[in-house]
Design brief:
alpha+beta, two-stranded antiparallel sheet, 7 helices, 15% strand
Amino acid sequence: MASQDDRDVDPKTAAAVAAAEAAGPASGENVRIDSWIWAVRLVKTRSVGASACRGGHVRVNGERVKPAHSVRVGDEVRLRHEGRERVVVVKRLIRKRVGAPIAVQCYVDNSPPPPPREAVAPIGIRDRGTGRPTKRDRRELERLRDLGGPGGSGGSQESRPKGR
């Protein structure tokens, strides 16, 4: 008897899932963590995944791991990449890179939501072609930079020279 999930999947996706399972490890074999995070599209290349492991940006069940660490179903993988942290739980082991709809089925995503784009935008970047900043623009930029600095005082009046 087929489950509800089996009946809702279109034939193309079912064929892709079958190919992904065929690409998975045989019973008793294991999958490297750098290969797995690349295969499920958490990183663009396997070498980026290996570099992240060597740099201490990948943790499996709370422990820093090397690129050759074996990953198992049920492991929690934490990856810091491109300014955000991804937290995923392994559902299926695959060795070869697959399409995005199939890759999503290989893990459960418990990541916090990404920060809003306004919070990520750098402060003080001017539009191309606007020319040199005016004195007023410079003062506004300095005020913004002082607000973000340590102490957050907004710039002290004592350091500025007294007027007439």
